[in-house]
Amino acid sequence: MTGGKDTAHGTATEAAGHPDWARELLEHLRPAGRDVRRVVDWLAGAVRAEVTLRDEAGATLAGTPLPLDETLAADVASGRIASAAWDGDGRHLRLVRVGHPTGACVLAVSRGEPFDRHASDVVTHTAQVIELLLTAHETQAAGVRLRRATADLRLAILQLLMVEDTVSARRVAAGLWPGLLDADTACVYVLESDPALRDRLAAECIERTRDQALVVRCPAMDGHVIVLSPREATAGDLRSLVERHPDTFVGGSVWQSLARTATAYGQAVSALAVARFRQDKTAVYAERTHPERLMDPAALRTWAARVLRPLDALPHHTRAELLATTRLGLEFTAVATAKVLGVSRNTVRARMDRVESMLGVDFDDVTVRAVVHLALHTQINLLDGQGPADSAASARCLTELLSGPAVTSWARQLLGRLDDDPRNVRRTLRTWISAGANAERAAQTLGVHAQTVREHVRSAEPVLERQLLAAGTDLYEVALAHLAVGELEQPLFAGE
Question: What residues does the PucR C-terminal helix-turn-helix domain cover (predicted)?
Answer without folding.
Answer: 334-377, 426-481
